[in-house]
Design brief:
This protein has one domain. The longest helix has about 45 residues. It is mostly helical. The chain is about 70% helix and about 0% strand. The mean pLDDT is about 90. The protein has a two-stranded antiparallel ribbon with strand order 1-2.
Length: about 260
């Protein structure tokens, strides 16, 4: 069950960069979502520009494979946003759009999950953190289906089950655990500020869902699976394209050299 978890009782190094990425993103998420709660479209677009600047700056210090994973995560999550929100109506932003800061925001959130997953804190206390996350998210899910809250959350409970499957069977359990913290943070702030609102009835499953659903971190498990699975193919394709262009350039130079003779 825990074969993909880090080995216990080992000494893991702490890198300041990992904690800086996490702290910076948590801060930016709060400032951005609270600012957007009463912002006009121009300010929303300005937040988007800031998001891209911050994301690019953070990626400059990352390895190539992480950069590719983040770019795939941004692309996949952005497509998912347009499908789930404007098209399906699973949740709705203030202007019924996908705000400009959302795509780079997904990149920063995913990078934060990766940074925390490789941090000394998460690697050292992986099992304790997993116990905490399962307990908190499990109680949250039980609350949603208990009949006590006015808006039930059966979708959240289903997502929690999916999250558990990823956590104990997936290849990146530490990323999933980290995703729980950052996604819960942004969902609680975003919904409380009215930046977006989840539909009371999910348009696909036709079941009650919370605002936000308790197991919303499960969506980032899917984003991570796509990012990790797609990164090697993208890098391999880029390598083949680069080699092809080099060969074509060499042939062109050789042809031009023969012509000059």
């Amino acid at each position: 069950m825990l074969r993909h978890f880090p080995e216990p009782n080992l000494v893991y190094s702490h890198k300041k960069r990992d904690y800086f990425i996490a702290a910076f993103t948590f801060f930016c998420v709060a400032v951005c979502l609270l600012s957007d709660a009463h912002a006009d479209m121009a300010k929303q677009n300005a937040l988007g520009v800031c998001g891209w600047v911050f994301l690019i700056g953070l990626l400059l210090g990352e390895a190539k494979d992480v950069r590719v994973q983040v770019l795939i995560a941004v692309l996949f999550a952005t497509i998912g946003e347009h499908f789930a929100s404007p098209y399906m109506g699973g949740y709705t932003y203030r202007f019924s759009n996908v705000p400009a800061y959302v795509p780079p925001g997904h990149g920063m959130v995913y990078l934060t999950a990766v940074a925390l997953a490789r941090s000394g804190l998460f690697l050292t206390y992986a099992r304790q953190i997993a116990t905490f996350v399962v307990a908190v998210c499990g109680l949250w899910s039980l609350w949603g289906i208990s009949g006590i809250p006015a808006q039930g959350d059966y979708v959240g409970a289903l997502l929690f089950v999916v999250f558990l499957a990823y956590l104990f069977k997936g290849r990146s359990p530490m990323v999933y655990l980290a995703a729980f913290f950052i996604t819960t943070w942004l969902e609680l702030i975003g919904t409380a500020a009215g930046t977006w609102t989840w539909a009371a009835i999910d348009p696909v499953l036709h079941l009650p869902q919370g605002n936000p659903p308790s197991g919303v971190a499960a969506w980032y498990c899917l984003v991570d699976a796509v990012a990790i699975g797609g990164a090697p193919q993208v890098m391999a394709l880029a390598g083949r394209t680069r080699d092809y262009l080099k060969v074509q350039k060499a042939r062109k130079n050789a042809y031009q050299g023969a012509g000059n003779e």
